[in-house]
Amino acid sequence: MHEHLSRLINARGPIGFAEFIHEALYAPKIGFYRRPRPRVGLDSRLDFYTAASFQPLFAELICSAAVQIWGAAFCEQATFVEVGAEPEKSAMDGIAHPFAALRVIRLDDPLVIPSPSIVFCNELLDAQPFHRLVFHQGRWRERGVTLQANGALGECLLPTWTPELRVGAPELPESAPEGYQIDLPLRATQLLQSIVAQPWNGALLCFDYGKSWHELSQECPQGTARGYHRHRMVTDLIEHPGAIDITCHVCWDFLTETLEASGFDEIVLERQEQFLVRHGLEPWWRQREASGAGSAEERRRIQELIHPDRLGHKFQVLRAGRKKLACPGQCRSL
Description:
Helices cover 31% and strands 23% of the residues. It has 334 residues and is an alpha/beta fold.
């Protein structure tokens, strides 16, 4: 990966931080998400875990919540479309589900979404490249990556903004403390735009971690980007490209505006704890108790998903619906 990036920089000069992350994560065969190895799970040899690592519990709670929110009749007509699943895995593996069909869209698969659908993604948007801006000597400058004299990669300030940033940057604060940094998740928004630009009706269910634009631009002076390797946070994002996960918080305001502009309504943002407890856990647990099931291990996994000190507050859930669908029975409008 270092040789690949060195050739790129030698040929073109310093590259924007977003382009560096794109190569580090998605360069064919050598990017973090392109390497043929497991990355996600509770095993200490892997890099990080998500709510989906607590299966089948997480999937069952999603099914329970979908029925509670959108109605059994709609779920029986809808395709559950998972976007961004890991290779050879999906959220609904091995469980009984209430949906008409399942579809999994992985990296490089065509983005084809039938109608009606429930489109689900879990920690997909935060895995997209992002731009880095820093307030330096009275103005916002874009960070890039260059080669240092010793051949190592290093961060730099680009002389001008890259074209993508010039077109897509939101209105930035007129002033900020010297060195204030914004990790700007433009490509997360672009990915959601490509998903909702498809002519499908139904619902969106997105699990991720993010902040408001006010928080990103006013309350996070060091930015929100992080790296992860074997369940440990890495602060130097350019030292081992291709070997670590690189991520930053999404901007919920950008995503909500994208949904509104694409005809979605009933847009709700909740903490993962609120979503699972309010919509999924109670009916699921009643069913488990009625069947005599339930175990200490299940209770431990529930706590992992909903406890404020674990995943419950770290992650949020964005959901929305588009158009009213003519469904029989108890199907609710979307």
